[in-house]
Write a structure and sequence with these properties.
Elements: H1 23-39, H2 43-53, H3 56-81, H4 86-94, H5 98-105, H6 111-117, H7 121-145, H8 151-182, H9 184-206, H10 213-249, H11 251-281, H12 286-296
């Protein structure tokens, strides 16, 4: 009596190709099944759940649009009041080449013309633009960290963050370009530390003390790392992006390039905060990660 043939129902289904299935499609199916098993319950699935809960893509786009409409006018006037050129300062900070710097320079008037135009009602729009940018970032963090708005404390926190931003930008504008030109490696180390410290303090201010410093630290570290990575990438591609868009679309193309940069900022802020939350909620640590790498090596 012959034994009944076995059906490929368990783990063997991943190894034996089904009838009529080629070897290549079988490998693809098994690889997809393996990836699905690894993804289920992993930190990557947890991270995507966090991002999906805050409507990651739409939030990033809305934040980018708000920063373009509010943060850019605020910073342009701020730089002009300090007597510095917005175009040259931006070009140095972003590491633009001469052709890209010339394209950016066509967008801006001189600092003297800009500061002379800030009179009367313009001061109110200048202040409101800064508050609008701070409030947009604040609302993103309130959504990511699930912190309920508190009107008076939120306004004070946004103003304090805006003052911190002005101070950090002024300091970085004087120190960082020279450091980048003389000691590039030290520039990136200082940039990482400065950005991490800024967002650690900034998150606490924007959330009006709603979360403790210790819980915000992993989020600030993740944001600092993502920001530094974004800055490194744009330092390589941004000049080419500006010149290409300028050739294709004219001066408005430079605005499109800056919009891409602001979208990247929105992605970095939300992704950094979500990474920090996942790191804490799953009880991860650098020591455990190193130990796991040693066991698998």
């Amino acid at each position: 009596m012959t034994a009944p043939s076995e059906r490929p129902d368990g783990p063997s289904a991943d190894r034996a190709p089904q009838a009529g299935e080629s070897a290549e499609s079988g490998r693809v199916r098994r690889a997809a099944a393996w990836a699905k098993r690894k993804y289920a319950g992993s930190w990557a699935e947890h991270l995507w759940g966090q991002l999906d809960a805050v409507d990651f893509i739409n939030r990033s786009m809305l934040l980018a649009a708000t920063l373009l409409l509010c943060a850019v006018p605020f910073l342009l006037v701020l730089v002009a009041l300090e007597g510095r050129s917005a175009a040259s300062g931006l070009s140095r900070r972003m590491g633009l080449n001469k052709e890209a710097a010339d394209d950016v320079g066509q967008l801006f008037t001189t600092s003297a013309d800009t500061s002379a135009a800030v009179t009367g009602l313009s001061w109110a729009f200048f202040i409101l633009a800064g508050i609008g940018a701070a409030t947009a970032v604040q609302q993103v963090y309130q959504r990511v960290f699930d912190v309920q708005p508190r009107r008076t404390r939120d306004r004070l926190g946004a103003l304090a963050w805006l003052a911190l931003l002005v101070g950090v930008l002024s300091l970085a504008g004087w120190v960082m370009p020279g450091l980048h030109a003389s000691v590039p490696v030290l520039f990136w180390i200082v940039s990482l530390v400065l950005v991490t410290a800024f967002w650690w303090c900034g998150m606490w201010l924007l959330l009006a003390g709603g979360l403790g410093w210790r819980r915000l630290l992993p989020c600030a570290v993740a944001t600092g790392a993502c920001w530094t990575g974004m800055q490194a990438v744009f330092s390589v591609i941004f000049s080419g992006m500006i010149t290409e868009y300028d050739r294709k679309y004219g001066s408005i193309g430079v605005v499109f390039a800056f919009m891409s940069f602001f979208i990247a900022i929105g992605v970095v802020l939300i992704l950094g905060a979500a990474l920090g939350l996942v790191w804490q909620e799953r009880g991860l640590s650098f020591r455990a990660a190193v130990a796991k790498m040693r066991r698998t090596s």
